[in-house]
Target: HPP transmembrane region domain-containing protein
Amino acid sequence: MLHKFKGTGGAPARPDALQILTGLMGGVAGIGAAALLTQLAGVPLLMAPFGATCVLLFAAPGAPLAQPRNVIGGHLIAATVGLVMMNVFGSGIWQMAVGVGVAIALMQFFRAVHPPAGANPLVVLTAGVHDWSFLATPVLAGSVVLVAIALVINNIGQAKQWPQYWV
Model:
């Protein structure tokens, strides 16, 4: 049984300098744009899981988990689960556990798995968010801003094409 924990190979190859630069530029531009728009519009467009979303969007843009459907849909699904849990059952240990589990199951069911979104029920439940407007800002608006930035950053250069799919 312990042999299963050994692994089957070494670490993946280091990305080339261009991909590392893309990750740097994408993270700065994505979070910077959301933060700036938050300041200018006076509405929240940031939440902690968006940092992890940037990792997928700009360091692994070809992954299914980094496609617009997954980013936007996954965040909306998981945040909705968190809000349902909060408004129906309140906040607690079991609500957090069930919220994350249900969010994972629904993201799988709707083919919109986005790992950073798995934290959304925890964000909602630990912050005590009851207001359904949370789905509009920061969840939807912030996700759309990050996807828009990824559309620009991930298509710089002749050979690049992102996304792989929309729906």
Observations:
- The mean pLDDT is 95.
- The two ends are 40 Å apart (CA to CA).
- The CA atoms of residues 85 and 98 lie 8 Å apart.
- The helical segments are 17-41, 49-59, 68-89, 93-109, 120-127, 136-153.
